[in-house]
Amino acid sequence: MNTSGTIVRFLRKALPSPFTIAVLLTGVTMLLAFLIRPPERERKPDYSITLAGKTERLSPEKFEIVSRFIEADPVKVAPPKPRGLQILTAWEKGFWELLEFAMQMVLILVLGHALALTKPISRLINSLGAIPTNTAQAAALVSFSAIVVSLVNWGLGLIFGAILARRVGERFAAQGRALNYALIGAAGYAGLMAWHGGLSGSAPLSVVQSDHFLSHQIGSIPPETTLFSPMNMSVTLALLIVVPMILFITGRRTGAGVPTISSSTTSVATGDSEGTGRLDKSRVLGYAFAMVIIGFAVYKAATYQGTTFFSFLQLNYVNFVLLGVGLALHGNFARFLSAVDDGVRHSSGIIIQFPIYAGIMGIMKYTGLVYAFSDFFIRIADSNTLPLLTFISAAVVNVFVPSGGGQWAVQGPIVMDAANQLSSSVPKNVMALSYGDQLTNMIQPFWALPLLAITGLSASRLLPYTFLIMLIGIVVFVGALLIF
Questions:
Q1: Total structural domains within the chain
Q2: Which range marks the domain in which residue 483 is found?
Q3: In a 10 Å sphere around its CB, with 0-12 CB exposed, 13-18 middle and 19+ buried, how is residue 459 labelled?
Q4: Which residues of the chain, if any, have pLDDT below 50?
């Protein structure tokens, strides 16, 4: 544990805040775009046409028909802009292109957080917290539970794991029993190393949509080839078995003392704040609205005419279901909104950082820098080794871009272009990027902030154990990418 502790202390001292990292990464990307010019490559014909300020992509056949009826006006060729101005224009253009995606990510966290604060979930947490009798049992139970819930929704899993770890600590403290509380806190965070292969994974769910921002490169990718592929199912099963087992062994071998737990403001939402009227607290209205949402979600899933069975499983659908279930379990609008308010406080990083990452994507996309990077991958990789290189690079990038959605926006265009050029499996590379992104969550404390606030633990106590979990992940993810 001494080596991991040294690495963690170095990272904590060396890394600034995530927002500062995003700004610095923007500056680095601008510098690279200024120094590196895109290679000359054969480009595919662009069958797009602009009418009344609106650009629409057409099939080659439609393009030929429509172009016959349009008389082109004389075009005045303007001198090219200075390179610096081109880069700034590309940055500003990209800045606003992922607002819908950013809102989807915010809702996943906020609605998952709100669901974790419902009475049924709280009762489940209390019941689970009463099961373990020692550190080893607690570490295994908390990590297994956190991973299972994170596979459903990463926002729910993050808060669920944090509250469960705290409940275990409170129970041991009340009974005067010894517990390695830092290990239990790390176990509660383990779900963040599994979430991207679950039902709220940013990259695999994004590419299901027919109009996602990389659809012109890779089209729509069904979840049967990503989330429900044999590789990802094997990875998920391995994490559910190996992580709790290793933490169980660690819990038996580490020292422990009676935990001292500071007070926490996170609890079941009551909705008893001022300004809430009768309708806000009406269970009839709350349940009625929830049932409308849930009923329509079931209808949509049953009647969805997609290319594959799970094609309906997209980001908007997941958020829609979370909204309905959250409302139903809270019982009224007042309690639900109280929980939402608590979740919004933890989503500020997504709200302010996503436009920054979208700007980085814009620089790469509109200056041609994405082609320079993808050509580098093409020179050093082949169709078989690209997924492993994607995983390694994604793990590194996540330290600087601690957001699955933000990283997909920045790195996705590069990897997908390289995959197309090398005829490498697009679904496998999507999952390789997802695995790399979630791996280094274990040493990037950005998403641990809500857990630290709930458990009262410090990052210096938590991260040595999450570093151990990361080592487990390296073995599982690299093994899967080499075998499948």
A1: 2
A2: 1-41+93-484
A3: middle
A4: 1, 4-5, 8, 42-43, 72-77
Model pLDDT for residues 278-335, shown as the tens digit of each residue: 888 889 999 999 999 999 989 988 887 765 566 677 778 888 988 999 999 998 898 8
Q: Is residue 357 part of a domain?
A: yes
Judge if 221 and 336 occupy the same domain: yes
CB neighbour list of residue 178: distance below 8 Å, 6 or more residues apart: 135, 172, 256, 257, 258
- CA 353 remoteness from chain centre: 13
> Are 191 and 252 within one domain?
yes
Range list of H helices, 267-385: 283-303, 315-330, 333-344, 348-367, 369-380
Length of the chain: 484
What is the H or E stretch that residue 54 is in?
strand 54-57
Encode burial over 35-72: b for 16+ CB neighbours within 10 A, e otherwise.
eeeeeeeeeeeebeeeeeeeeeeeeeeebeeeeeeeee
Q: What does residue 307 show for φ and ψ, rounded to 5 degrees?
A: -70, -25
**Residues contacting 121, CB < 8 A, separation 6+:** 115, 160, 329
- Does residue 254 sit in the same domain as residue 359? yes
* Residue 5 lies inside a defined structural domain of this protein: yes
Residues 395, 474 within the same domain? yes
For 95, the 3-state DSSP assignment is helix
Instruction: Compute the CA torsion angle 262, 148, 1, 6 (nearest 10 deg).
Output: -70
Taking alpha carbons only, the member of 136, 122, 161, 41 closest to residue 339 is: 122
Q: What is the pLDDT of residues 34-56, one digit of tens each?
A: 888 766 554 455 555 555 555 56
